[in-house]
Specification:
- The protein has a domain of about 230 residues: Type I PLP-dependent aspartate aminotransferase-like (Major domain) (Aspartate Aminotransferase, domain 2, 3-Layer(aba) Sandwich), CATH 3.40.640.10.
- Helix content is about 35%, strand content about 15%.
- It contains 15 helices and 16 strands.
- A seven-stranded mixed sheet has the order 1-9-8-5-4-2-3, with helices on both faces. The chain has a four-stranded antiparallel sheet with strand order 12-14-16-15.
- Helix 6 links the parallel strand 4 and strand 5.
- Helix 1 runs antiparallel to helix 8.
- The radius of gyration is 22 Å and the shape is globular.
- The two termini are about 30 Å apart.
- Bound molecules: pyridoxal-5'-phosphate.
Length: about 425
């Protein structure tokens, strides 16, 4: 008789996950306060309070909030002077928004490979891609693991480039004792529901530089002359003011964040050890990381130890009710928007009078071998699972043990059709 759920056996777990996003009495009070103030928009003192508190938490001087993380990256790129004809170096293994924000600012994303033990931007690969058109290096602190800032900062300085941190997955993470978001020239965070600090949809840009902060505030608000004449528009701006309701959720969220980070770290260690005997190796990152954000818990799947493809294995685990998935399923250059000449944007930025380069993303897989490999060997568990109670975590380990012990049952099982383990 079959034991594995994928073959008709009893699954290990059937309960839904419950623990994200979190809220408590303070959220009700904050939302009510904003509601009754009738000051619902971006001029609310709640928004200013959040910006100041979050910037201080990260060790940065200034914070400018935005409606999304994507627009936070766009705003920071604009502030750093990125526009038509400019190149921005981004990792190929990340969420689409890191690269699409560049494209939306009419600039050219150039994909660098990642490091296999941190999954973050590979510094040598980034270095090899610098041209006279490069303006910004945009590393991502992927899954909560900071990128190698010890090497990226000097590299940017040496070439006169700006360094913009994509911190969307790394709230509270630390590199050698310093919180991310205060390491580069500017940083951008997402605060959407799934991220470690959540407000539905929101974002924020941080910087220590007063002139950059002033320009960000101006571009966030229609290009207004905020100092002298509110009705004068000094340059073409956006409206990226954040809702006060978002701030009402973010302030209590910030109070919960430190304890959540501790729980995520503790449970990450627990899972890492528990899963190790069953063909799953935790990617624990760089030793200079003093705090991992654990937005995502990342594993290397050891296909040789288990003896079936990652897709078959994942289908079996998902059938057991274990919340696992592939990480990013392909290098971003393979997205139709970059790869397919019929789909990708016409004219600026990829071919226009401002840009003299030749863009051909179909050559990128060759120079991003690590990205290509990780797309086929990684398994991830969302970090929110690390906040679930002990029983859930034990069930994940039991699931891995069960599938491993009964792996002979998986021979001949066709994965893709059964559990949709595709990205
Ligand atoms: C979520 C995310 C973003 C975009 O944030 P949104 O708030 O969804 O716009 C950007 N970069 C990375 C790495 C992300 O994970």
């Amino acid at each position: 008789m079959a034991l594995l759920a994928i073959n008709g056996g009893e699954p290990i777990r059937t309960r839904p996950l419950r623990e994200w996003p979190q809220y408590d009495q303070r959220d009700y009070e904050g939302l009510r306060e904003v509601l009754e103030s009738r000051d619902w928009g971006g001029y609310s003192p709640k928004v200013r309070e959040f910006e100041e508190r979050f910037a201080a938490y990260c060790g940065a001087r200034f914070g400018i909030s935005t409606p999304t993380g994507t627009s936070a990256i766009q705003l920071a790129l604009r502030v750093l002077g990125v526009g038509p004809g400019d190149e921005v170096i981004v990792p190929a293994y990340t969420f689409i928004a890191t690269a699409s924000a560049v494209l939306l600012e009419n600039a050219v994303p150039v994909f660098a490979d990642v490091d296999s033990e941190t999954s973050c931007l590979d510094v040598d690969s980034a270095k090899s891609l610098i041209t006279e058109r490069t303006k910004v290096i945009l590393p991502v602190h992927l899954y909560g693991q900071p990128a190698d800032m010890d090497r990226l900062l000097p590299l940017a300085r040496e070439h006169g480039l700006s360094l913009l941190e994509d911190c969307a997955q790394a709230h509270g993470a630390e590199w050698r004792g310093q919180r991310v978001g205060s390491l580069g020239d500017m940083s951008a965070f997402s605060l959407m529901t799934g991220k470690n600090l959540a407000a539905g949809e929101a974002g924020i840009v941080l910087t220590d530089d007063e002139a950059l902060a002033e320009r960000a505030r101006r571009l966030e608000n229609q290009g207004r002359d905020l100092k002298r004449d509110f009705n004068a528009y000094l340059e073409l701006g956006y409206n990226l003011r954040m809702s006060a309701f978002a701030a009402a959720l973010l302030l209590p969220g910030m109070e919960r964040l430190p304890a959540q980070l501790e729980t995520r770290s503790r449970n990450a260690q627990f899972l890492a050890e528990g899963l190790r005997p069953f063909g799953l190796r935790h990617i624990r990152g760089d030793d200079r990381t003093t705090k991992h954000g654990y937005h995502i818990f990342e594993l290397e799947y050891e296909e040789e130890a288990v003896g079936v493809s990652r897709e078959t294995y994942l289908a079996a685990m998902i059938a057991e009710g274990i919340p696992m998935s592939t990480g990013y399923g392909y290098g971003l250059y393979r997205s139709p928007v970059f790869w397919d000449r019929k789909v990708r944007p016409k004219g600026c930025p990829l071919s226009c009078p401002f840009y003299s380069g030749q863009v051909d993303y179909t050559r990128d897989p060759e120079r991003c071998p690590v990205t290509e490999r990780l797309c086929h060997s990684r398994i991830v568990i969302r970090g929110r699972v690390l906040l679930e109670d002990q029983e859930e975590l034990e069930d994940i380990i039991r699931g891995a043990e069960k599938v491993y012990e009964n792996r002979a049952e998986l021979q001949g099982v066709s994965a893709l059709s059964k559990a949709g383990a595709k990205p």
